[in-house]
Amino acid sequence: MAAIDLTAAPFNLDDEAVAWVHETRDRLSPRDKLAQLFVLLSREAPDEALQAIRAFKPGGITRIFSPDLAEEIGLMRQIDSAGPVPMTVSADLEGSRMSLPFGTEVPNPLGLAAVDDVEATTAISTLMAEEARAVGLNWSFTPVVDINKAFQSAIVGTRSYGDDVDRIERHALAQIKAFQAKGVAATVKHWPGEGYDDRDQHLVTTVNPLSLAEWEKTFGRLYRAAINAGVMSVMSAHIAFPGFVRELDPDAGADAYRPATQSAVLNQTLLRERLGFNGLIVSDATPMAGFGDWGPRSETIPQCVISGCDVILFSDDPNADLMYLVKAVADGRLSQERVDEAVTRVLALKAALGLHKADRPEPALTNAEVIMARADSKATAAAVTARVPTLVKDVANLLPLSPTRHKRVLIFSTGAVQPFAPVPLPLSLPDLLRQEGFEITEFTPDMQVNAKDFDLVLYLLAEETLLTRQRIFLNWKGLTGNVFGAMKRYWHDVPTLMVSLGFPYYLHDAPRVPTYVNAYGSNEDMQAAVVECLMGRKPFEGKSPVDAFCGSEQGKY
């Protein structure tokens, strides 16, 4: 087995912890070693989830928490005894609609980038980590260090800190430091760098199109900074980087477009050897089409580990995937040395998180309830959220709104579009405006609109980063109900305002809308913050962390 210095960064283990790693690895059965390489998605009811965990005994789970805190704490208190080694519990702590259902609502990364205050990002990240630890979470697949360059990318969207490398580095390093100081391992993603391809790796292997020199100035800089800061894990994604592959082999052919999750060149040669990363490499979710595009799972699952991923993320059929690894070991494709190396890093992460200690505190309901109810956390989040809304343009000098001047309001809205919700979720912003004294009419497809009946038209959009959408765009027909409504524009007859509670690039589809606001997230606190700004009681403090005009002057007028 290749020597791994577990006393060095990012694990920084003492002699006792190093001994635990080696002793634990060596006592595991061959089957249990391979199971340690899996992190499974857990979204069932707690009793059913525990049964599945006990049956497979994975290295860890990614838990999709229900709103029932007591039941979730009950599950967390039992999982460590469900297998031969304590388990990691992970999540995508990305804020906004990705916040814990019983936790404090916080802005997403793009919202924090609009505030652009490292102290604010540190404060938000600290409270996120404290709440996560209180419910047993110890590993987050954040921060996202992708770069918003392809504005039509639905998958980067609101998850990154914008399009400026300096800004991304500041905030990503702040989150890494805050998370890991509170016992939550951080993960930088999506290796080797997303944001220049407007497609979604849930649907296709995407491509980082940069030359190696360009990459070094952008993603190379960001990943080196994160590694130097001690980030514990890197998420290898279903993203190809032909620029680097062809530096080594100009005749690489199809291999130039091999996703990182299948590429020893990207994981081993570039990440481990050139960038010096000594931590854990976790794959992105393997049910994605960007992974499955490359071949059958009987080949891609073993190749994922062979290529340098220490953890296989998610599986629709864990037992089948485990057998693919067993067969790969048996026929020599996957060496036992490589398996032991991966298991060593999995166990080292657990030891770095203190999971090897018999006296570590268990999640407790009373403590979690206290942590979740802290008034200072809610005040901190509300104060930062209030600084997020960004006035992109107001060429008509419409704002602030007033129920005397804009009494009758017609709202066209998508609702809050969510990846796993079958229908859009209702927004509270219309009711908040009713409470301000406005007469609100919410458009329905059977409505005949007469512009003279209204004093304000409000387009209210709420699509944050979405999975498997491929594109987010202003769907005029969906918004207005039919092809004729899609062609109507009211802003020459009625004052008109467009507010995005998510995707920041709708000016590409509505460049002539006279007043446009970006708020990046659609959680309840953000909707309330937007109303405060629209009414003029709070200033619009946010500064756009992306080019909201989408590279065109058309939207500025």
From TrEMBL:
Q: Which Pfam families match?
A: Glyco_hydro_3
Q: Of which family is this protein a member? A: Belongs to the glycosyl hydrolase 3 family.
What is this protein called in UniProt? beta-N-acetylhexosaminidase
Which residues does the UniProt record annotate as the domain Glycoside hydrolase family 3 N-terminal?
A: 75-348
Record's superkingdom?
Bacteria
What Enzyme Commission number(s) does the record list for this chain? Answer: 3.2.1.52
Q: Does the keyword Transferase apply?
A: no
> What UniProt keywords are attached to this protein's entry?
Glycosidase, Hydrolase
Q: Which organism is it from?
A: Devosia salina
**GO molecular function term, any single one:** hydrolase activity
> What top-tier enzyme class does this entry carry?
hydrolase
List the catalysed reactions. Answer: Hydrolysis of terminal non-reducing N-acetyl-D-hexosamine residues in N-acetyl-beta-D-hexosaminides
